[in-house]
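pasting for ref
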Amino acid sequence: MQTVKTGNGPRNFKPSGLDSRQAPFSEIPVIDFSAMYGDDAEARRQVGDAVRQACTQVGFFYAKGHGVPQAVIADTFQAAHRFFDLAMEQKLALNISQSENMRGYTPMLGENTNEENAGDMHEGFDLALDLAANDPDVLAGVFGYGPNQWPADLPGFREALLAYHQALLDFGRRIFAAFALALELDEDHFERYLNKPMAHMRVLAYPSQDG
C-alpha cells in the first residue's frame, strides 16, 4: 500500500503493478470545449478527438471554453470575500467538524498535510450537491450526501455559490460527453451515471505573506 497525504487525512492506495510510460511532449494541450455547448455534431466530435489525443499522448490537458458566465464567476468571488470577512465566531458556527459529510468552514491551520508544519495557511469553505435533510440518500446515511452548512446572516452567499456550482456541474457533463466521443461511444453514454453527483467544491482564502 502507498499512503498519500490529503487535506482530509492520509489515504491508502494499492499500486497497480503496471509501469507507467510517458510519451514525449513539448507543451500541455489546451482544449476548447465551447463546441460542446453548440448544435454542431462534427465540432463536438472534433473536441472528442482532441480529448482522446491529449489523454493517450500526454495524459492530461487544460480546458477552456467552460461556458461559466463571467458574472457568475464574479459573484462567486465577491461572495467568498464577504464570507471570509465575517467574524471568526460566525465562521466557526459552520465548522466542518460538525458535518459528517465534509461540508462547512475550515479555519486557518485547521488542516495539515505536512506533519512538520503547524498547519496549512488557508481558510476554506466546502460544499457539495445541496440535498434536503429528507433526501433518500441522506436518510440512508450514504457517505458524502447531506445538507450543506450555510451562514444565516449573509444574504446572497448561498445563491451565488450554488449558481457557480451548478454551472460547473453543467460543464462537467460536457466533459463527460467529450470523453464518450473520445471513446467512440454515444455522446450521452455517461449521463445515466450523473443523476446525483456529489460534486464537492471548495472556496479558499490565503493570507498575505511576506516574501
